[in-house]
Every structure is written in C-alpha cells, then in structure tokens.
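Final report, Chapter 2: Outcomes

The project's central promise was a pipeline that accepts a single protein chain and returns its three-dimensional structure in a standardized token representation, suitable for archiving and comparison. That pipeline is now operational. To close this chapter, we reproduce one record exactly as it appears in the project archive, with the input sequence first and the structure output second.
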Amino acid sequence: MAKYRPTPNAPHLTRIVLGASIALTAGIAAPAAFADSHPPLSAPPAESVNTPKSASPAKTPLEIQAEKLPKVSAAQVLELAAKQIGIRENAQGGGTKFHDWYMSSSRAKETVARDGGSVRAYANAPWCAMFVSWIGEQAGIRPTMGWDAYTVTHAKWFKANKHWGQTPKPGAVVYFDWNGSKNLDAIDHVGFVKKDNGDGTITTIEGNTGVGRVEQRVRPKSQVVGYGYPVYAG
C-alpha cells in the first residue's frame, strides 16, 4: 500500500508505491473529527433498567441518521461501484474524479487541519479510501458510509459507531492489512465486499488497486482486518 505523511513543512508528498492506503499522520485524531453531518461517536443511549427484555435494542447513531437519508440497498451501492471499474489514475498517481471530488469537499479541509499538509497534496495521493467515500456521497448515504482519505481513521469511525465486525456482508467496507493482523492502525487498503465466496476468500470492488485502477478482485479473508457496515435498506 502506498502510505504518505504530509506535514505543514512538507507540502510535496513522497509516494511509495506499495498499494492503495494513505497515512496522513503519526498522531491520529479521534474519530470525532468528522464533520457535523455525521452522527456523534458516543455510545447509543443505555437501556433503562426497567426496559422489558422483549423490547427492541436501542438504535445506533448510524441507524438513527439513516432514517433521514434515502433508502439505498447494498446491491445498489455495489452496482454503482461496479460501474467505476476500469477508471485509472494518471502517470502521477492521481487525476481521477475521486481525487477531484475529495479535494473540493469540506472533508479535505478538515483532514488537512487534522494532519497537516495542503489540500493540493491529495491531487496525486493514494485513493482507495477516496473511492469508498465518493461512492457513499454519490449514493446519498455518506453520513452512514463515512468519508476520509485515511483508511485507519475511516475504520476507527465505523468501530466507534458500533458498526464494525468480522462478517463479510455484501456492501460492507472491507479493510486489509497485507501482513494479516487485526490491528486497525496497520490497515493498508480498503474496498467493498461483493460476496463471500465460501472458500476463505471474498470478491471485492476496490479503487487504486492493481496498476492504479478500480477493479474487481478476489482476496483471502486472512488479510482482512475487519469490516465496516454502512446502514442499508432491506
């Protein structure tokens, strides 16, 4: 995975071509740095001690947020992601519509404030997380998909919102560590789960993979750190 670390004193990035993740900072801010369009990261309200056991469990912040959003299924998100297959970066490692969108978003300014560097630094940055974020934006469910250019922060946002697990559901956001750890700080890459193949592998749709394209791939589950679960209809 390609990881880079812009700082206020180093606006020009050094790109180490190892894959598709982006590491922007040594000291990662708490997930609460997300824009106010995202739900708070506090735990959902505790059940009253007098609540009958048969009562429905309290909704998570993401589930509450989803009530205000369009009803979008996992299949629709995967269809949108599949339509991007073949899009590729330029010779400098950037130039995609995913880069352009992220650089124009308010989130880019927030992540620069958090991590240093400049918005221009994203122009040729590794873009796997930008691809996932762009899909959420285009589908109209960004508040439950999350958005960031740094895979680690994105994964920690899902976990803080209690939408994190180890089951490869279709439409889940899948995070990889090529060394096979379960350490969120070691995440190298991110994409979408298309299906569990039932043989120890998953089929995925990912940005910035292979030679810098959106591709459908088959990955071993042994390289998966975990899965983030957007809120889907149906």
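Archive annotation: The two ends are 34 Å apart (CA to CA).
This record, like all others produced under the grant, will remain available to the consortium after the project formally closes.
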